[in-house]
Amino acid sequence: MSSSCWITSFHLVPSHQHTFRNVFNRNRKTRHYSHTPTRTTLMACVASKEDASSNGAGLFLPSQDSPTTLTRFVLENIRSSKAPEDIVDLISSIQFACKKIASLVSRAGITNLTGLFNEGKSINIQGEEQKKLDILSNQVLKNALKYSGKMGVIASEEEDVPVTVDESFSGTYVAVFDPLDGSSNLDAAVATGTIFGIFRQEVSCLIEDMADDIEPSQLNCLANTLQPGSRLLAAGYCMYSSSTMMVLSLGHGTHGFTLDPEVGEFVLTHPYMKIPKRGQIYSFNEANYHQWDPILQEYVEKLKTGNNRSGKCYSLRYIGSLVADVHRTLLYGGVFGYPRDKKNPNGKLRLLYECAPMSYLIEQAGGKATNGAQRILDIIPNTTHERQPLILGSEEDVDELMQVYTKYSSQMQV
Known about the structure:
Pfam families: FBPase (PF00316), FBPase_C (PF18913). InterPro entries: FBPase_C_dom, FBPase_class-1, FBPase_N, FBPtase, Fructose_bisphosphatase_AS. It comes from Galdieria sulphuraria (Red alga). Residues 69-271 form the Fructose-1-6-bisphosphatase class I N-terminal domain. This protein is an alpha+beta fold. It has three domains: 4-62; 70-272, Fructose-1,6-Bisphosphatase, Chain A, domain 1, CATH 3.30.540.10; 281-413, D-Maltodextrin-Binding Protein, domain 2, CATH 3.40.190.80. It contains ten helices and 19 strands. The strands form four sheets. It has an eight-stranded mixed β-sheet, sandwiched between helices. Strands 14-13-15-19-17 form a five-stranded mixed β-sheet, with helices on both faces. It has a four-stranded antiparallel β-sheet with strand order 2-3-1-4. The longest helix is centred in the N-terminal third of the chain and has 20 residues, at 87-106. The radius of gyration is 24 Å and the shape is globular. The protein starts with a strand and ends with a helix. 40% of the residues are buried. Mean pLDDT is 81; it is low at 1-63.
């Protein structure tokens, strides 16, 4: 029978060290014990998870002698021909930017980075007031990508138009990103995140980084870089919460990496993440219930009352931060939605920066994503800031909603 190992390191007062030594000496499966006067490190190996639970060893986290860092993970994917060779430079640039943004977010309250930029007078292309960290995070990520030497075009939710990279730094990739999703919750210390997607550039564009001087022909060149989510080479998000976590897909599964603050590296903690086939959580902003279409209202009512295919009553969980809500849905299953309503008939989330990368991750984890009529990843953007409704989550949950829409649609055509 194979054994499983757990390792942990923690502080003990001297009076407790003797107690722990006796406990682990009684467990014959203990392989290693060492301590200093103020710090104790224990690694227990047990025959199975059941033994771990009964012996109390389940308190320890799975570990490796040589953990897989994000960079090592990407390099191993390149060696196995699961990723293009030069993607490692892009991912390295993104993870550096995310580490910097994580530091800025964690210290925002003590460095006067909370609140609105320019006293609320700065409005982005979406018509939204920009936070101080919206501006700063955008610049951090934009610079990191620009100087990677791999970018041809950079499109940000905070920029009016896509920005082309100077010829001396240009490459063949297109990056799209929301530098700080959920920034409206920042002052309340609610989880925020960075969302990104990487495409291969279809048309070469070498023009100056001055949006106001771009000619119509050059804008057409940039428009040719707009691609459906199905063409993404990589997508991910970085969540800034109780820990900093990056969830990434290079097209071969969805994987989670947690930032180890002691060594400053993202370490693989959630390999091959799989969303449950069906969950028991729905995540919608029910304040908009009366603005929804009757089909969605009926579906949500059935979730709440248990009058659905699972026969179980669903719980409502809604944070209001896309990264946090999608992350929970990815882990626990269920359905997340930011649907169209009377106020936002075209939806509110941006297709390029939010819907497509999140849908890519969910599908790579075995889930589904739709706008209520078609698969998100099949939609070709018409503009860089196009909005779409978004419903994603467990396969069976999304399928159930789509079948309700299909039924009503067929009835209307009769």
